[in-house]
Amino acid sequence: MTDQALMERIIAFRAKPENQSPHGKFLGLEIMDVDEAEATVKIPYSKDLAGNSATGILHGGIVTTALDAASGLAVIATFERAITIATLDLRIDYLKPATPGEVIFAYGHCYKTTRNVCFVRGLAYQKDKSDPIANSTATFMITANHTGKKDDQLRTDEATGAKL
Amino acid sequence: MSLMELIKQAKEEDDFSLLSEGIPYMKSLGISVVENDGQLITTMKADPKLTGNPWIPALHGGTIGGLLETAAIIQLAHDQDTDNLPRTINITVEYLRTGFIKDLHATAIVTKQGRRVANVQVRCWQENPDKPVAAMHGHFLMS
């Protein structure tokens, strides 16, 4: 599905304040890009989110949140039909410390789907995507498929909202 | 106060919540620590700003991962004679059931303490410790 319409729908949905996830809003999380089976989000730097006040390096929880959001969004952007999903597991390898003061981007790619489970690879990076700060592997459970026409928009929105 | 001094003070006063002074993320998310029978319990207080899915509503998976990683780091700082916080090498978070907007408690077990690397397992739960919301295992570099 090379669905410009879906991407636009997801971004338009997210733009409405009432549809932003409270935690995403709290962190200033933004969707940068959604494409077929791929998504990128960003979280701005804040010293209040550091894991160590001496170094100012962002806490791992921020990287986890960004990768979970990007990976889940990548799953949603894989399906033409509306689905709702739940994270089964998420593994993160920290490759190098994040540079304090710089925005963090997270990218997810859903490379395999089955009837019940989807598999996603992800990267977190700052200035250079080819020199990531973290690498991730996640699996997601499809908790519901929706084929009924009436509810589809709503269900997609719920699923989308859940990962923003 | 430096992190080194905070860790020292936390040990002297037996109050690991003091570490939140050196870990701004703990303060921002509302994570605190109590010691109960020699076991540290790290708690993330229920707060609407931790919501990921507002339709259930449920905690954001990232906040659950953040709590679990924090619990592991604090347990290692508590157990070890260290001047600095351990650094995360990798973590695997397993999401077992929905985390509702309620207090979330975590306990960590250091499975293996090596000279340079530690393996830690963490579980978290809400009302019933026998019904874990998520589990994590990970490796940490001791500094």
Kindly describe this structure.
The complex is a heterodimer of chains A (164) and B (143). Chain A starts with a helix and ends with a helix. Chain A is α+β, with helices and mostly antiparallel strands and 164 residues long. Mean pLDDT of chain A is 85; it is low at 148-155. Helices cover 30% and strands 35% of the residues of chain A. Chain A has one domain: Thiol Ester Dehydrase, Chain A (Roll), CATH 3.10.129.10. In chain A, strands 1-2-4-5-6-3 form a six-stranded antiparallel β-sheet. Chain A has helices spanning 4-15, 22-27, 60-76, 149-162; strands at residues 30-35, 38-43, 82-94, 104-113, 117-125, 134-146. Chain B is built from three helices and eight strands. In chain B, the strands form two sheets. Chain B has a six-stranded antiparallel β-sheet. Helix content of chain B is 25%, strand content 38%. Chain B has helices at 3-13, 24-29, 61-79; strands spanning 31-36, 39-44, 51-53, 58-59, 87-95, 104-113, 117-125, 132-141. Chain B is α+β, with helices and mostly antiparallel strands and 143 residues long. Chain B has one domain: Hotdog Thioesterase (Thiol Ester Dehydrase, Chain A, Roll), CATH 3.10.129.10. Strand 3 of chain A pairs antiparallel with strand 5 (87-95) of chain B, so a sheet runs across the interface.
